[in-house]
Design a protein that fits this description.
mainly alpha
Length: 178
């Protein structure tokens, strides 16, 4: 019987361990591209070469997201659900309204906020957490009072700053000219 070559031995008689199954064509192409890059020196002098990886100590599947948020200057509010953003905005509506110059702008801003809240409720009808709607007339009346106090003018001057043809509410009806 002829000596058949042992697949686990090299021609020099050394053992190389168990024989590997052949690689799929894609994997072989990738391996050869990596080996060629190593031979060219493409992986020499990479940042962090020879340093240990900075991995979390405990098993955390979201470690890379947390690291990205820490390292980069990302807006964390963009990760919040819309209802949370609306609730945060509701907390600052008074300050925002104070900075608006006319009653028309205040009314428009508050109505836009209410429209966004109602749209969110329509998209998520079974949501446990809801953003509050605001009473536009009450907030506009409060804005008028603040404008009258700050500007030293009369409340009628604040009403006069509204857009023409706009509904003016109770305050306007009480002080209209006859």
């Amino acid at each position: 019987m002829a000596d058949s070559p042992d697949p686990e031995r090299s021609p020099h008689g050394r053992s190389h361990g168990p024989r590997r199954p052949p690689m799929p064509p894609d994997a072989a192409r990738h391996e050869s591209a990596i080996e060629a890059a190593i031979a060219r020196g493409d992986f020499d002098d990479l940042p962090g070469a020879g340093k240990p990886l900075d991995l979390p100590r405990q098993e955390d599947p979201d470690w890379w997201i947390k690291r990205k948020l820490e390292d980069d200057d990302l807006d964390r509010d963009a990760l919040l659900p819309p209802v949370m953003l609306l609730r945060r905005e509701a907390e600052t509506l008074s300050e925002t309204s104070r900075s608006l110059p006319t009653e028309h702008d205040v009314r428009e801003h508050l109505e836009d906020f209410n429209a966004r809240v109602l749209a969110d409720r329509a998209r998520n009808p079974l949501a446990r957490m809801l953003a509050p709607t605001v009473d536009v007339e009450e907030r506009v009346a409060r804005w008028r009072d603040e404008q009258a106090r700050e500007g030293g003018g009369s409340p009628a001057a604040a009403v006069a700053s509204t857009a023409p043809g706009e509904r003016r509410g109770l305050f306007r009806r009480l002080f209209r000219r006859r």
